[in-house]
Amino acid sequence: MDETAQQMRAITVESWGGPEFLREVRRPRPEPGPCEILVRVHAAGVNATDWKQRASGGLGLWEDPPAVGWDVSGTVEAVGMGVTLFEEGDEVFGMPRFPHQAGAYAEYVTAPARHFVRKPPNIDHTEAAALPLVSLTAWQAFFDTAHLRPGQRVLVHAAAGGLGHIAVQIAKAFDAHVTGTARRDKHPFLRRLGADDLIDYTATDFTTAVKDVDIVLDTIGGDYGPRSLSVLRSGGTLVSLASPADDALRPQAAALGIRAGFMLVEPDNAALTAIADLAATGRLRPTIETVLPLSQAAEAHVLGETGRTTGKIVLKVAA
Q1: Are 132 and 120 in contact (CB under 8 A)?
Q2: Digit-coded pLDDT (tens) for 238-254
Q3: Which of 6, 13, 131, 157 lies at 20 to 30 Å from 219 by C-alpha?
Q4: Measured between alpha carbons, how far is residue 296 from residues 6, 18, 19, 119, 291 in Å?
Q5: Was domain 3-131+286-316 assigned CATH 1.10.3730.10?
Q6: pLDDT tens-place string over residues 130-151
């Protein structure tokens, strides 16, 4: 077979640091192993963890040369030995291998079959690629970590961001009362998603505007964790998604009768199936800030790192 046909385009990190170290290269197309599928990538979602790990070294888990990205939507090209969930031609989406290297910014990806689910027919590959990591993060934070129940009060920081706007929708789908922090110009967008109360963090200290919260989802870090403790009721939960350093809040939180700590998302077939069901019924829909070609992955990271995007950035991979 022609050697060129066995190659694919992919984005790798030439050196840990800024987005200028992202490079488009040609590398061998992977083959699925036992219990794995080969996915032809149509679109790859861009997440904050992508640029954070690009800058810091990928939690020490990336192989050499490091390949970037986790969110994938595409078509099953081949199945490995023992796979029964999917067949060639199935449209799937998922967050394979996180936090280990997956290499989603590429034309092909291999991963365990159970790291994917079928793409709902009512959303396209761009929308599906925007969902997995942020949706699984919000789902696991709310239900596995904080045990969200209908009617509880939830505070989502950076509610208009890639993760925040998904968290708002998931919480509302399960009848929570949702407060979000966001700039005032983002408030109409968040109202349309169902947010009940909104706080312009540039004008108002959220600690003076909300109280007796059951769950805080902190996507920002820094002083947001310690300050958020003051708005939680006894028995509430602070879930930090920003930094492992936030585990230092545990003793202070425990003294207040609050659970707190850092959470890292994991591949989860059951939760991703539930997320796909929400999308299929129209209760969950990602907002796409912009779509860029794979070759402009560095530009996507520059845009994401501004912290001013509404919704998700997605790379278009297949024509």
Answers
A1: no
A2: 999 988 888 999 999 99
A3: 13
A4: 23, 14, 10, 25, 10
A5: no
A6: 999 999 999 999 999 999 999 9
